[in-house]
Amino acid sequence: MLGYKVVVAGATGSVGREMLTILDERQFPVDEVVVLASRRSLGTEVSFGDQTLRTQDIAQFEWSGFDIALFAIGSQPTSIYAPKAAAAGCVVIDNSSLYRYDPRIPLIVPEVNPKAIVDYSNENIVANPNCSTAQMMLALKPLHDHVRIKRVVVSTYQSTSGAGKDGMDELWDQTKAHFGVIDDVPAKKFQKEIAFNVIPQIGDFMEDGTCQEEWKMVVETKKILGSEIKVTATCVRVPVFVGHSEAINVEFENFLDEGEAREILRQAPGVIVIDKREPGGYVTPKECVGDYATFISRIRQDSTVENGLNLWCVADNLRKGAALNAVQIAELLGREVIKKG
Questions:
Q1: Distance CA 299, CA 262 (A)
Q2: Residue 313 bears catalytic tag
Q3: Is-contact 213 202, C-beta < 8 A?
Q4: Are 250 and 323 within 8 A, CB to CB?
Q5: Model pTM?
């Protein structure tokens, strides 16, 4: 079987580097990998397995002849370069929010809605969901297939890596400043100091008081799982480097026993259930770093609503929330669409 010619755009960022790592770890069949960055990062070296690759200028890149491009460059540059790549016959898998809400472009979590991949041909573009949405979909879809979901209430505890390297650096520097190692570091990436604090705002405020991250979770859940599901979210930034956590309350159309829910989730692809009712019998974000799985814990009935269930959901946001999901979409494209050899 022949391999694919793959482009990673934004290869010097946290997600781009993770994409390269996962392509190698999962032995994605490649004949050639090219790494792209903006002009200011031109020539930066990044690792792909035992190879060292030097970044090329995305503005000068010729896309024709390449099969798949993984984009991790943000919405504004994506709006410039994704159409160019797609027009040249290179399928774009985009990690930004630019195309997620376009009805012509599939929004894919491979374990959840793989059949939607056929719509990639509408624009030669596939959208990767928001990191907090992606892990929640793995928890909800197997339950929704068994007993229809009516309503979801989710509170997130999102790590600073969700805001990129600058977010992680700000937490690190403010932590050092707290102990007098360096001078005070004012909030720059976040709205308030993140060290030893939590910030109930991710993204800008909208007219109804919702923040953008909360709006994304609502709209993306409806696009992936079903428009009839009611969703409300509160998204919070916490002083964690990597790993997003979510407290999810689900109301079903009919009763679902917690024990049955536990067994359904144990059988679900991409999910690991660790749920012991004892001190420490659950997974925290620190423990999920570097893992492919989405971890579910604290599964229990909610007796305050009819047919309610609570659960705790944790995943490495740089992996399942971004890079891993993108590579899995590439694998899905390879199996279902872009046949080689």
A1: 7
A2: no
A3: yes
A4: no
A5: 0.94
Spatial contact of 128 and 322, defined as CB atoms under 8 Å apart: yes
The answer to whether 261 touches 228, Cβ cutoff 8 Å, is no
Predicted confidence at residue 179, as pLDDT, reads 96
**144 among known catalytic residues:** no
- In the chain, the largest separation of any two C-alpha atoms, in whole Å, equals 61
Per-residue pLDDT reduced to its tens digit, 229-285: 999 999 999 999 999 999 999 999 999 999 999 999 999 999 999 999 999 999 999
Structural tokens at position 6: 């793959």
Catalytic residue chosen out of the listed positions 90, 244, 288, 313: 244
- Residue tagged active-site, from 131, 235, 288, 313: 131
pLDDT in tens, 319-332: 999 999 999 999 99
The percent of residues above 90 in pLDDT, for the chain, comes to: 95
C-alpha to C-alpha distance for 16 and 89, rounded to whole angstroms: 21
User: Which residue type, as a one-letter code, is found at position 335?
Assistant: R
| DSSP per-residue letters across 292-335 | SSEEEEEEEEETTSTTEEEEEEEE-TTIIIIIHHHHHHHHHHHH
